[in-house]
Amino acid sequence: MEILKMLGEVLVCWLVAYFVSGVVHEGGHVVAGLLQGWKFEILVVGPFKLYRDEKDDKVKFGLEKNLMLWCGIGGTFPREEREDNLQKFARVLLAGPIASLILGLLCSISLFFGVSIWKAMMTFVPIAMGIACLIPNAKTGILYTDGGRFLRIVKGGKAQAEEKAVFDATFHDMFHPGSRYDEAGIEAMTTSKDASFQYMGHYYAYQNAKMAQDQEGMQASIASMESLKTKVSKFIKETYVLEN
Questions:
Q1: Overall average pLDDT of the 35-53 stretch
Q2: Contacts of 27 (CB under 8 A, 6+ apart)
Q3: Which residues pair with 50 in a beta bridge?
Q4: Cβ-based neighbours of 38, under 8 Å, separated by 6 or more
Q5: Are residues 22 and 106 in the same domain?
Q6: Which domain holds residue 201?
Q7: Torsion sign over Cα 108, 109, 112, 115
Q8: Residues 167 and 86 sit within 8 Å (Cβ to Cβ)
Q9: Do 117 and 173 sit in the same domain of this protein?
Q10: Which helix (H) or strand (E) covers residue 97, if one does?
Q11: How far apart are CA 118 and CA 10, in angstroms?
Q12: Residue 72: pLDDT above 90?
């Protein structure tokens, strides 16, 4: 019975520590965006979310139905199109892991005044989360980790071009509604070695072909996306869906 009680305590402490760490991590992304003048859009941790309602532009509390987002997401959007938005985004990416590490290090001080399961979890869970999100070549199930994407942006070259292409395409409809997606950006994505970038590139190529009523181009993009489906995450496939 004592073992079961201890295991139960460990589980509860871990769950609470994970939730708190997630709030701080995603909150770090959000705060970094707000400090740079960006607009708050969404904060999801587990089944709970704060989000901006498109109908009245007010921030509301709700439950997140998409289970794939329960791992956490903190989103802020740029208010205007600027040349330095990608660099600002790099800082937003790094803010989450840094917030996690700071939380863990601060909580570690309490261990000097006595050890408990709760203190240990509040120390090691956020530190582990921060380190995991800084591993350069690892994936989160969507794209690269926060740290990986930060490095890809700051080092320049093909990696930066791919990240910029995804970033620009994401906010394209906000700044250029009804216009074609950038062809250079699409090429950067479709020529990537990463299947997820390729998949997104062919999705945007399809949108351009659709606007031009280019049936051959549309079919080519569909075929390319189909060939990549087994290589990309479920989240990518459910996010980039072609409309009939």
A1: 92
A2: 43, 74, 99
A3: 43, 61
A4: 76, 77, 78, 79, 88, 92
A5: yes
A6: 168-239
A7: negative
A8: yes
A9: no
A10: helix 85-108
A11: 8
A12: no
pLDDT of residue 244: 62
Burial pattern 5-40, b for ≥16 Cβ within 10 A else e, equals eeeeeeeebbeebbebbbbbbbbbbbbbbeebebeb
Cβ 204 vs Cβ 241: under 8 Å = no
In the block, tokens 């930066």 appear at 160
Could you give the maximum distance between any two Cα atoms of the chain, in Å?
A: 69
Element (H, E) at 43: strand 39-45
Q: The whole model's pTM is what?
A: 0.89
Contact 125, 18 (CB under 8 A): yes
> 65 in a domain, yes or no?
yes
Instruction: List beta partners, residue 45.
Output: 48
158 located within any domain: no
pLDDT of residue 98: 96
Give me 207's structure tokens: 């949108």
Q: Is 205 within 8 Å of 186 (Cβ atoms)?
A: yes
Q: What is the pLDDT of residues 123-180, one digit of tens each?
A: 999 999 999 999 887 776 667 899 999 999 998 899 999 999 999 999 998 999 889 9
- Paired tokens of 129: 């989360």
Q: How many residues does the chain have?
A: 244
Q: Which two tokens stand for residue 50?
A: 């704060």
Tell me whether strands 39-45 and 48-52 are parallel, antiparallel or unpaired. antiparallel
Residue 137: CB atoms within 10 A of its CB come to 9
Instruction: Mark whether 120 and 174 lie in a shared domain.
Output: no
What number of H helices and E strands is found in the chain? 10, 4
